[in-house]
Design a protein that fits this description.
It is built from eight helices and eight strands, in the order βαβααβαβαββααββα. The chain is of the alpha/beta class.
């Protein structure tokens, strides 16, 4: 496989930096071809502004969606953005690695998404009608490729449990997994999350490193999160509301968009809680709880 790892941490000697090296080494050992986009080393420009659209007239009003569409269609995106798009098209799998800062990704990584996921490339793709609402959520430019997150969190795993004060980790990462990765078509694998990252000792690190090696060894075979496909019949078009007969009628929120009854490629059925689902589809990986 060809793997692109987008790395967002300012310190190469950090836990994140060390784990990145562990992941890349294991991927190479498995025969995969790996490229790394190190956003801090590259001094990645985070903000979307007029400089992103060199063909935009100085007296024209900047409407980012329109400007992005025009620049993509005319091959006028900036060189740094074109390079990252080429990497995404090259890669069979994408890994985003970052520390969880204020319940989301660092600004530099969000800026990478804002600028690289251009209109006509990652969104605004496909037919929009009363029968179909674009190629997105399971379809799109990046369909057939895999993606996953490697995330470090300072809090305890209990803090991110279904009843934890920080909220369930699956909910916190849903906007990234579903809204950024699944939207343009990726098959999204369960995230690899390291909790209590600031308290990790040498023994704990080795346990985490070995679990990460196992995830890299199974990158091509781990079953993805069974998100519902937008155009697969589960949603009413054009309202995009989930059909009333699907899911728990008392439930609401992110969990409705995961098909708990989906089967994996081996015919096994996914069911139960988010934690049950995560454990089930991580195959032989050890439990996240330490």
């Amino acid at each position: 496989m060809k793997v692109l790892l987008v790395f967002a941490h300012p310190e190469p000697r950090s836990l994140n930096g060390t784990l990145r090296d562990v992941a890349v080494k294991e991927l190479n050992a498995q025969g995969h071809e790996v490229r790394v986009s190190d956003l801090y080393v590259d001094s990645w420009k985070s903000e979307v502004d007029r400089a992103d659209f060199p063909e935009l007239s100085p007296d024209a009003r900047l409407v980012p969606v329109v400007a992005s569409k025009q620049a993509y269609e005319s091959n006028a995106l900036t060189a740094d953005v074109k390079t990252e798009i080429e990497k995404l098209l090259w890669a069979d799998a994408l890994i985003l690695q970052f520390p969880l800062w204020w319940f989301t990704m660092p600004a530099i990584l969000k800026g990478w998404v804002d600028r690289v996921f251009a209109y006509g490339f990652a969104y605004g793709v496909g037919e929009h009608s009363d029968k179909r609402w674009g190629d997105r959520y399971g379809e799109g430019t990046l369909a057939g490729k895999r993606a996953m997150l490697i995330v470090t969190a300072g809090g305890w795993e209990d803090h991110y449990s279904p009843r934890g004060v920080n909220g369930p980790i699956d909910d916190l990462l849903f906007p990234i997994n579903h809204g950024i990765l699944y939207y343009p078509g990726y098959d999204v694998l369960p995230p690899f999350v390291i909790y209590s990252a600031d308290r990790l000792d040498a023994v704990g690190f080795e346990l985490v490193a070995e679990r990460l090696r196992e995830r890299m060894r199974t990158l091509a075979t781990t079953a993805p999160i069974p998100y519902r496909r937008q155009n697969g019949g589960d949603y009413l078009i054009p309202s995009m509301r989930l059909r009333a007969e699907l899911g728990d009628p008392e439930a609401a929120g992110f969990g409705l968009h995961v098909n708990r009854g989906a089967t994996d490629q081996n015919g096994s059925c996914f069911h139960g809680t988010r934690e049950d689902l995560r454990v089930r589809i991580q195959a032989d990986a050890q439990s996240e709880r330490r």
